[in-house]
Amino acid sequence: MKVGVLVVAYNAETTLVDVLDRIRPEMRRELAEVLVQDDHSTDLTFNVATEYLQRGTDLHLTVVRHPQNLGYGGNQKAGYTYAVNHGWDVVVLLHGDGQYAPEVMHEMIAPIVEGDADAVFGSRMMTPGGARQGGMPMYKYVGNRILTTAQNAITGLRLSEWHSGYRAYRVSALAELPFVGNSDGFDFDTEIILQLAAAKKKIVEVPIPTYYGDEICRVNGIAYARDIMIDTVRHRLGRTGFGAGDVGRVTEPYAYKPSAHSSHGRVLQFMQSRPPMRVLDVGCGPGWLAEALTAQGHEVTGVDIAEEAGVRGRMHRFVQADLERGLPDEVGGDFDVVVAADVIEHVRTPQQLMQEMSHRLRPGGTVIASVPNISHWYPRTRTALGLFDYDQRGILDATHVRFFTRRSFVRLAKQAGLQPIERRHTGLPFDALKLRTERGPGRLAALVDRALVRLWPTMFAYQFVYELDVIPALDAPLDVATDAAG
User: Fold this and answer.
1) What pLDDT, in 10s, does the model give residues 266-320?
2) Domain with CATH 3.90.550.10 in the chain
3) Which has the closest alpha carbon to 355: 309, 307, 415, 315?
């Protein structure tokens, strides 16, 4: 494999040569290239590196000086981009200040070379007592342990240390990550871990010795702790659909929300006391709602643009169709109920789709539809703060092409020939957030949210769920009288 070393250096004129010399002879023979990137140092780091190269070395050495300081994260971004563009298979991140041991580089790359890892982190915490014996100050040790414990709890990872800068990566795995958009600061390392976790890449830790010399620490501890915890929380939220997904993202299909206070739960409540009916589930997705309706005794036909695995087994009949083009003839008609749960906001011509749904009803049939509330406090707050952007899921889902308030949805329904006969609301999607609401803080949060929804629905309702029927004047047969002439 083509193994390269990225040496990030800033004001490392007194340590850089020693770091390069400490790469063991057997490791030097395996390295395709060593890239030293001087991040626009204010000392003679670049001169020292070029002199080392000119004296002659068995390392395949490349020395770069950035025309401006890119920051710790920016320096890595430039190096990893170089590794991708130059066909490296493995890249080892080594610091030019000598804090991490080049002597154990072989152990760092071995799990990747052997095909057992996408990333390897050198951990100073795997050897009991090793970090303190190596000179790690007590305040840094305690801070490291507290932050690592918190980050493991939030993300579900089980790393012994999140804050080591000694890393090795499979370059093909790096190439799949959006690391170019990451921070230019010291929280870049945390963002890479979160992106690896989101992409389900395999991380392996190996023990490394701890060395603290007289190097100058350039990290503002308080700002660093703040930034990495913000990143970690963003990852946790990203896994539930909030945010753009740059450090944590949803990989599963749209979630089924069975809670009685969710949109799917509200639809099931509308239907549970009714005799068996013919139901059309528009935008049925994987078919979980259709399966629940079938369990209630209804005969369900589902329609969606993609056929998810197992969807036909969850309903009476499935029809694959692009709803942007309307409902195809093969769907049929004479349905007692047409369900459109969390789908109307995904089409560019919702009025046309709702008109077609009303035309598939038998006389006296109804439409049950749910839409997100764009006037909810979450998008309102983001807009007021100038932070409006799309999320992976939720009200600001990036696939939503239409937004609705309660008033605008009712107006749309009337334009489609439908009128509300019953309205219900949902609160925050605790199902999708994977928060337990049976007890503890989750239960209290759910109770408060439901109370606020009842008090001020246009501000706190996450979704509106309506049952609508055809406006009588449009549904009644015409009785036309004519004179004898015709």
Assistant:
1) 999 999 989 999 999 999 999 999 999 999 999 999 999 999 999 999 999 999 9
2) 3-238
3) 415
Please choose, from the candidates 199, 110, 115, 125, the residue with its C-alpha nearest in 3D space to the C-alpha of residue 158. Answer: 125
CATH of segment(s) 3-238? 3.90.550.10
Q: Which CATH superfamily is domain 263-475 in?
A: Vaccinia Virus protein VP39 (3.40.50.150)
Rounded to two decimals, what is the model's pTM?
0.75
Structure confidence at residue 471 as a pLDDT band (50, 70, 90)? very high
Q: Tell whether the model's pLDDT for residue 440 goes beyond 70.
A: no
Q: Which regions of the chain carry the CATH code 3.40.50.150? A: 263-475
Q: Residues 6 or more apart from 244 whose CB is under 8 A from it? A: 238, 389, 390, 391, 392, 398
CA distance 444 to 298: 35
Tell me the C-alpha distance between 192 and 177, whole Å.
8
